[in-house]
Design brief:
By secondary structure, this protein is an alpha/beta fold. 38% of the residues lie in helices and 16% in strands.
Protein backbone atom coordinates (compact mmCIF):
# COMPACT_ATOMS: atom_id res chain seq x y z
CA UNK A 1 0.00 0.00 0.00
CA UNK A 2 1.10 3.55 -0.57
CA UNK A 3 -0.13 7.06 0.04
CA UNK A 4 0.03 10.22 -2.02
CA UNK A 5 -1.65 13.51 -1.14
CA UNK A 6 -3.54 11.70 1.66
CA UNK A 7 -5.02 9.20 -0.82
CA UNK A 8 -4.58 5.55 0.27
CA UNK A 9 -3.84 3.50 -2.81
CA UNK A 10 -2.91 -0.02 -3.80
CA UNK A 11 0.33 -1.33 -5.27
CA UNK A 12 -0.33 -4.82 -6.59
CA UNK A 13 2.55 -5.00 -9.05
CA UNK A 14 3.99 -8.15 -7.42
CA UNK A 15 0.70 -10.03 -7.35
CA UNK A 16 -0.55 -10.25 -10.91
CA UNK A 17 -2.67 -13.36 -10.47
CA UNK A 18 -6.49 -13.29 -10.53
CA UNK A 19 -8.26 -11.03 -9.74
CA UNK A 20 -5.34 -8.57 -9.94
CA UNK A 21 -4.28 -9.56 -13.47
CA UNK A 22 -7.23 -7.71 -15.01
CA UNK A 23 -7.99 -4.04 -14.57
CA UNK A 24 -11.63 -4.60 -13.65
CA UNK A 25 -10.77 -7.29 -11.09
CA UNK A 26 -8.10 -5.12 -9.49
CA UNK A 27 -10.43 -2.11 -9.30
CA UNK A 28 -13.36 -4.04 -7.85
CA UNK A 29 -11.19 -5.69 -5.22
CA UNK A 30 -9.66 -2.37 -4.16
CA UNK A 31 -12.92 -0.45 -4.19
CA UNK A 32 -14.65 -3.10 -2.08
CA UNK A 33 -11.93 -2.66 0.55
CA UNK A 34 -12.38 1.11 0.64
CA UNK A 35 -9.27 2.22 -1.24
CA UNK A 36 -9.47 5.41 -3.26
CA UNK A 37 -6.77 4.89 -5.85
CA UNK A 38 -4.63 2.38 -7.73
CA UNK A 39 -1.10 2.47 -9.02
CA UNK A 40 -0.68 1.10 -12.54
CA UNK A 41 2.40 -1.09 -13.15
CA UNK A 42 3.26 -0.20 -16.74
CA UNK A 43 4.90 -3.54 -17.58
CA UNK A 44 1.59 -5.40 -17.17
CA UNK A 45 0.08 -5.43 -20.65
CA UNK A 46 -3.23 -6.70 -19.25
CA UNK A 47 -3.57 -3.40 -17.39
CA UNK A 48 -2.08 -0.93 -19.87
CA UNK A 49 -0.39 -0.87 -23.27
CA UNK A 50 2.37 1.65 -22.71
CA UNK A 51 3.20 2.26 -26.38
CA UNK A 52 -0.42 2.77 -27.39
CA UNK A 53 -1.21 4.96 -24.38
CA UNK A 54 1.81 7.16 -25.11
CA UNK A 55 0.40 7.94 -28.56
CA UNK A 56 -3.33 8.04 -27.76
CA UNK A 57 -5.12 10.40 -25.39
CA UNK A 58 -8.30 8.50 -26.22
CA UNK A 59 -6.78 5.27 -24.92
CA UNK A 60 -5.85 7.02 -21.68
CA UNK A 61 -9.32 8.52 -21.31
CA UNK A 62 -10.82 5.05 -21.67
CA UNK A 63 -8.46 3.69 -19.03
CA UNK A 64 -9.38 6.47 -16.62
CA UNK A 65 -13.07 5.89 -17.34
CA UNK A 66 -12.87 2.23 -16.35
CA UNK A 67 -11.05 3.01 -13.11
CA UNK A 68 -13.30 5.94 -12.20
CA UNK A 69 -16.39 3.77 -12.74
CA UNK A 70 -15.32 1.93 -9.57
CA UNK A 71 -15.00 5.16 -7.62
CA UNK A 72 -11.20 5.08 -7.86
CA UNK A 73 -8.52 7.21 -9.47
CA UNK A 74 -5.08 6.52 -10.90
CA UNK A 75 -2.59 7.84 -8.37
CA UNK A 76 0.48 7.26 -10.53
CA UNK A 77 2.19 4.97 -12.98
CA UNK A 78 5.09 2.73 -11.98
CA UNK A 79 8.12 1.66 -14.03
CA UNK A 80 9.72 -0.37 -11.25
CA UNK A 81 10.57 -3.18 -13.69
CA UNK A 82 11.68 -0.83 -16.47
CA UNK A 83 13.77 1.70 -14.55
CA UNK A 84 16.23 -0.97 -13.32
CA UNK A 85 16.92 -1.99 -16.92
CA UNK A 86 18.23 1.49 -17.63
CA UNK A 87 21.36 0.57 -15.66
CA UNK A 88 22.32 -3.09 -15.23
CA UNK A 89 25.84 -4.23 -14.24
CA UNK A 90 27.22 -7.05 -16.44
CA UNK A 91 27.20 -9.51 -13.52
CA UNK A 92 23.40 -9.23 -13.37
CA UNK A 93 22.66 -9.41 -17.10
CA UNK A 94 21.11 -12.88 -17.10
CA UNK A 95 18.86 -12.17 -14.09
CA UNK A 96 17.61 -8.84 -15.42
CA UNK A 97 16.93 -10.34 -18.84
CA UNK A 98 13.90 -11.91 -17.13
CA UNK A 99 12.29 -8.46 -17.15
CA UNK A 100 12.85 -7.82 -20.86
CA UNK A 101 11.03 -9.14 -23.97
CA UNK A 102 12.64 -12.08 -25.75
CA UNK A 103 14.00 -9.98 -28.62
CA UNK A 104 16.02 -7.83 -26.20
CA UNK A 105 17.57 -10.62 -24.16
CA UNK A 106 21.29 -11.44 -24.49
CA UNK A 107 21.85 -7.93 -25.85
CA UNK A 108 22.50 -5.47 -23.00
CA UNK A 109 22.90 -2.44 -25.29
CA UNK A 110 19.55 -2.95 -27.01
CA UNK A 111 17.88 -3.82 -23.71
CA UNK A 112 19.10 -0.54 -22.20
CA UNK A 113 17.90 1.46 -25.21
CA UNK A 114 14.52 -0.25 -25.04
CA UNK A 115 14.19 0.42 -21.30
CA UNK A 116 14.99 4.11 -21.78
CA UNK A 117 12.34 4.37 -24.49
CA UNK A 118 9.82 2.61 -22.23
CA UNK A 119 10.33 5.02 -19.35
CA UNK A 120 10.16 7.96 -21.76
CA UNK A 121 6.85 6.59 -23.02
CA UNK A 122 5.64 6.52 -19.43
CA UNK A 123 6.31 10.26 -19.19
CA UNK A 124 4.00 10.86 -22.16
CA UNK A 125 1.33 8.55 -20.73
CA UNK A 126 1.42 10.50 -17.46
CA UNK A 127 0.65 13.68 -19.38
CA UNK A 128 -2.17 11.99 -21.30
CA UNK A 129 -3.65 10.80 -18.00
CA UNK A 130 -3.29 14.19 -16.35
CA UNK A 131 -0.79 12.91 -13.78
CA UNK A 132 2.23 14.81 -12.50
CA UNK A 133 4.09 12.19 -10.41
CA UNK A 134 5.78 8.93 -11.34
CA UNK A 135 7.39 6.10 -9.32
CA UNK A 136 10.42 4.06 -10.41
CA UNK A 137 13.77 2.48 -9.53
CA UNK A 138 17.13 3.91 -10.64
CA UNK A 139 18.92 0.74 -11.66
CA UNK A 140 22.38 -0.08 -10.37
CA UNK A 141 25.81 0.00 -11.96
CA UNK A 142 27.71 -0.06 -8.65
CA UNK A 143 25.72 -2.23 -6.23
CA UNK A 144 28.19 -5.10 -6.50
CA UNK A 145 30.86 -2.76 -5.05
CA UNK A 146 28.80 -1.84 -1.96
CA UNK A 147 31.25 -3.58 0.38
CA UNK A 148 34.66 -2.16 -0.55
CA UNK A 149 36.62 -5.34 -0.94
CA UNK A 150 38.62 -5.60 -3.10
CA UNK A 151 39.31 -1.91 -2.72
CA UNK A 152 37.58 0.18 -5.37
CA UNK A 153 39.88 2.03 -7.76
CA UNK A 154 39.94 5.77 -7.20
CA UNK A 155 37.23 7.45 -9.22
CA UNK A 156 35.13 4.32 -9.82
CA UNK A 157 32.14 5.50 -7.80
CA UNK A 158 32.22 8.95 -9.38
CA UNK A 159 32.39 7.35 -12.82
CA UNK A 160 29.45 5.07 -11.99
CA UNK A 161 27.18 7.92 -10.94
CA UNK A 162 28.26 9.98 -13.94
CA UNK A 163 27.18 7.11 -16.22
CA UNK A 164 23.94 6.59 -14.29
CA UNK A 165 23.08 10.26 -14.68
CA UNK A 166 24.03 10.18 -18.36
CA UNK A 167 21.46 7.43 -18.96
CA UNK A 168 18.73 9.09 -16.90
CA UNK A 169 19.11 12.70 -18.04
CA UNK A 170 17.33 12.22 -21.40
CA UNK A 171 14.53 10.48 -19.50
CA UNK A 172 14.33 13.23 -16.88
CA UNK A 173 14.23 15.85 -19.62
CA UNK A 174 11.32 14.02 -21.23
CA UNK A 175 9.50 14.02 -17.89
CA UNK A 176 10.28 17.71 -17.53
CA UNK A 177 8.83 18.40 -20.96
CA UNK A 178 5.64 16.64 -19.87
CA UNK A 179 5.66 18.36 -16.46
CA UNK A 180 5.92 15.17 -14.44
CA UNK A 181 8.10 14.61 -11.37
CA UNK A 182 10.06 11.36 -10.99
CA UNK A 183 10.10 9.70 -7.57
CA UNK A 184 12.94 7.23 -7.10
CA UNK A 185 12.32 4.51 -4.55
CA UNK A 186 15.44 4.38 -2.37
CA UNK A 187 16.10 0.67 -2.17
CA UNK A 188 18.85 -1.92 -1.50
CA UNK A 189 20.13 -3.36 -4.75
CA UNK A 190 19.88 0.01 -6.52
CA UNK A 191 22.51 2.71 -6.73
CA UNK A 192 20.03 5.01 -5.00
CA UNK A 193 20.07 2.90 -1.84
CA UNK A 194 20.45 5.48 0.96
CA UNK A 195 20.48 9.25 1.36
CA UNK A 196 24.12 9.82 0.48
CA UNK A 197 23.81 7.87 -2.78
CA UNK A 198 20.67 9.81 -3.69
CA UNK A 199 22.65 13.00 -3.17
CA UNK A 200 25.42 11.72 -5.46
CA UNK A 201 22.87 11.03 -8.19
CA UNK A 202 21.13 14.37 -7.75
CA UNK A 203 24.44 16.19 -8.03
CA UNK A 204 25.43 14.13 -11.10
CA UNK A 205 22.19 15.19 -12.83
CA UNK A 206 22.95 18.85 -12.18
CA UNK A 207 20.29 18.96 -9.45
CA UNK A 208 17.60 18.16 -11.98
CA UNK A 209 14.32 19.61 -10.76
CA UNK A 210 12.34 16.44 -11.58
CA UNK A 211 14.41 14.21 -9.26
CA UNK A 212 12.54 13.37 -6.06
CA UNK A 213 12.27 10.60 -3.44
CA UNK A 214 9.79 7.79 -2.90
CA UNK A 215 10.10 6.99 0.81
CA UNK A 216 9.77 3.42 2.07
CA UNK A 217 11.12 3.04 5.62
CA UNK A 218 11.14 -0.76 5.41
CA UNK A 219 14.20 -0.61 3.16
CA UNK A 220 16.04 1.44 5.76
CA UNK A 221 15.34 -0.99 8.59
CA UNK A 222 17.09 -3.68 6.54
CA UNK A 223 20.10 -1.37 6.14
CA UNK A 224 20.06 -0.13 9.77
CA UNK A 225 19.50 3.47 8.66
CA UNK A 226 17.61 5.79 11.01
CA UNK A 227 14.43 6.19 8.97
CA UNK A 228 12.97 9.03 11.08
CA UNK A 229 16.09 11.21 10.89
CA UNK A 230 16.05 10.58 7.13
CA UNK A 231 12.94 12.76 7.04
CA UNK A 232 14.85 15.63 8.63
CA UNK A 233 17.18 15.67 5.64
CA UNK A 234 14.82 15.00 2.73
CA UNK A 235 11.27 15.94 3.72
CA UNK A 236 11.10 18.69 1.10
CA UNK A 237 11.55 16.25 -1.80
CA UNK A 238 9.63 13.28 -0.42
CA UNK A 239 6.19 13.45 -1.99
CA UNK A 240 5.32 9.74 -2.12
CA UNK A 241 5.72 6.88 0.31
CA UNK A 242 5.08 3.16 0.59
CA UNK A 243 3.52 1.67 3.69
CA UNK A 244 5.35 -1.57 4.39
CA UNK A 245 6.87 -3.01 7.54
CA UNK A 246 10.20 -4.71 8.30
CA UNK A 247 12.27 -6.01 11.17
CA UNK A 248 15.95 -6.48 11.95
CA UNK A 249 16.97 -9.09 14.51
CA UNK A 250 20.65 -9.92 14.26
CA UNK A 251 21.98 -13.17 15.67
CA UNK A 252 25.33 -14.79 16.26
CA UNK A 253 25.01 -16.35 12.81
CA UNK A 254 23.42 -13.69 10.60
CA UNK A 255 23.50 -9.92 10.19
CA UNK A 256 22.91 -7.13 7.67
CA UNK A 257 24.02 -9.01 4.55
CA UNK A 258 21.81 -12.00 5.25
CA UNK A 259 24.19 -14.84 4.48
CA UNK A 260 22.44 -15.82 1.21
CA UNK A 261 19.51 -17.19 3.22
CA UNK A 262 15.85 -17.22 2.24
CA UNK A 263 13.95 -14.09 3.28
CA UNK A 264 12.25 -15.77 6.24
CA UNK A 265 15.63 -16.75 7.74
CA UNK A 266 17.42 -13.42 7.42
CA UNK A 267 18.13 -11.04 10.27
CA UNK A 268 16.47 -8.29 8.24
CA UNK A 269 13.22 -9.14 6.51
CA UNK A 270 10.03 -7.47 5.31
CA UNK A 271 6.85 -7.95 7.34
CA UNK A 272 3.17 -7.17 7.02
CA UNK A 273 2.08 -3.80 8.36
CA UNK A 274 2.06 -3.87 12.15
CA UNK A 275 4.18 -7.03 12.44
CA UNK A 276 7.54 -5.27 12.14
CA UNK A 277 9.54 -2.60 13.93
CA UNK A 278 8.56 0.57 12.07
CA UNK A 279 6.86 3.19 14.21
CA UNK A 280 4.46 4.62 11.66
CA UNK A 281 2.72 6.70 14.32
CA UNK A 282 5.94 8.61 14.92
CA UNK A 283 6.64 9.69 11.37
CA UNK A 284 2.96 10.31 10.54
CA UNK A 285 2.82 12.52 13.61
CA UNK A 286 5.70 14.55 12.15
CA UNK A 287 3.53 15.42 9.17
CA UNK A 288 0.46 16.31 11.20
CA UNK A 289 2.02 18.10 14.17
CA UNK A 290 5.21 19.76 12.96
CA UNK A 291 5.26 22.64 10.42
CA UNK A 292 8.69 21.36 9.34
CA UNK A 293 7.09 18.50 7.41
CA UNK A 294 3.97 20.22 6.02
Amino acid sequence: MGQLNDIPYLLKCQFQQAPFNKLEGLCKWGADLGYKGVQIPTWESSLINLETAAQSKTCCDELKGIIESYGLQITELSTHLRGPLVAVPPAYDIMFDNFAPENYKNNPKKRTEWAISQVKNAAKVNKNLGLNVHGTFSGALLWYTTHPWPQQPDGLVELGFKELAKRWLPILNTFDKNRVDVYYEIHPGKDLQVGVTFERFLEATGNHKRVNILYDPSHFVLQQLYYIQYLDHYHEIIKMFHVKDAEFNSTGKSGTFGGYQDWKDRAGRYRSLGDGQIDYKEFIALGTQSPLYL
